[in-house]
């Protein structure tokens, strides 16, 4: 199990990303629009820099929903390899069969 503080920190980042998504998207559209004047684009970049760092989507870490483990994350299921194996051995994941040779 991961540290609870790390999981909560990541959840806080997810909330910030949701809260600032529209504002960030609008400012990026202005900042990347080359038909506008350089001053307008620069001001949009400055306003973008004033937003919280953790409101950027790239700051979110994919973590297992069950254990909070940050590594070996399967996006399709949202869980780590360890949790995947445990659930597979119990027969809780349809279509997953343990192989041995």
TrEMBL record:
Subunit structure: Part of the 30S ribosomal subunit. Contacts proteins S3 and S10.
Keyword Acyltransferase among UniProt keywords: no
UniProt protein name: Small ribosomal subunit protein uS14
Family stated for the protein in its record: Belongs to the universal ribosomal protein uS14 family.
GO molecular function: rRNA binding; structural constituent of ribosome
Known role: Binds 16S rRNA, required for the assembly of 30S particles and may also be responsible for determining the conformation of the 16S rRNA at the A site.
CC terms in the record's Gene Ontology section: cytoplasm; small ribosomal subunit
HAMAP family, A to Z: Ribosomal_uS14_1
Keywords: Ribonucleoprotein, Ribosomal protein, RNA-binding, rRNA-binding
GO BP terms, alphabetized: translation
Organism of derivation: Methylobacterium soli
InterPro entries associated with the record: Ribosomal_uS14, Ribosomal_uS14_bac/plastid, Ribosomal_uS14_CS
Lineage top rank: taxon: Bacteria
Keyword Transport included in the entry's annotation: no
């Amino acid at each position: 199990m991961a540290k609870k503080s790390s999981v909560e920190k990541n959840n806080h980042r997810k909330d910030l990303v949701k809260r600032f998504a529209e504002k960030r998207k609008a400012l990026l559209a202005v900042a990347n629009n080359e038909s506008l004047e350089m001053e307008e684009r620069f001001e949009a970049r400055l306003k973008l820099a004033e937003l919280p760092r953790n409101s950027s989507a790239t700051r979110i870490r994919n973590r297992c929903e069950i254990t909070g483990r940050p590594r070996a994350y399967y996006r399709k299921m949202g869980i780590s390899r360890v949790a995947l194996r445990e659930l597979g051995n119990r027969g809780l994941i349809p279509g997953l069969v343990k192989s041995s040779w």
